Amino acid sequence: MKVRVISTFSFAKLKNKKKAVFVVIDTFRATSSIVTMKNSGASKIFVTDNGDNAKKLKALILPDALLIGESKGIMIEGFDYGNTPSIFSRKSFKGKDIIFTSSSGAKAITGLKAQNNIFLESLLNLNSVITQVAEIAKKEEYDIFILPSGSASSIEKLS
What we know:
With 159 residues, this protein is α/β, with parallel strands linked by helices. It has a single domain, classed as ComB-like (putative 2-phosphosulfolactate phosphatase), CATH 3.90.1560.10. 28% of the residues lie in helices and 23% in strands. It is built from five helices and eight strands. A hairpin with a 2-residue loop joins strand 4 and strand 5. The longest helix is centred in the C-terminal third of the chain and has 15 residues. The chain starts with a strand and ends in an 11-residue tail after the last strand.
């Protein structure tokens, strides 16, 4: 088993993607938001790569879903909430479906959509993710790929 850190841009060049476990890390916002919304009772969370696709998904398939996310750190017009995990810990999303997008984390997640073993890691679920990923990788003799989302040049504003 190998553990490698790769960029989301390098993902397309990987061979044998099916024999791997992927961990998306966006500790600042996206993965923390998703973990917090799930812990606050969200039924399902659908991740899209941009606000337009989120709005289309809501209009065509999930009219009762909440739209949550940001673009370049700013809440998207027409959305119910921006992308601030601390707010979600004070809300109840019990039984609600959510459509989520963000500038970097959501793009990293949607880039892996055809893969089987994807984990979203934040500081909130670090121990659980490490344990589960290690168990799968050891049992299946899979490599582990860690994909930090964003880049050194991307700076998100707090909304």
